[in-house]
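for the writeup, i need someone to sanity check this before i put it in the appendix. the sequnce is what the collaborator sent (i think, or maybe the updated version? ugh). structure was predicted straight from it, no edits. if anything looks off just tell me and ill rerun, i have time this weekend
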Amino acid sequence: MYSEAMLLCNLLFGSIGLGYFIYGRKQGNKVVLYSGVALVLYPYLFSSVITVAIVGLLLMSVPRFLP
């Protein structure tokens, strides 16, 4: 069962991922689009709140460093 912190992380990174997805689709930017999809889907793979937070921050920074 999920804790409150895990649910909050899932909601936070899922919402940011949805924003990335919409922005990437409208701008035609594949890196942002795929980062958004990854942000929405990755919390299902991890069970630790710290891991979800670290991976989420890394996925959020991917469009900044890739063209």
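The chain has a mean pLDDT of 93. The first helix runs from residue 4 to 27.
thx in advance!!
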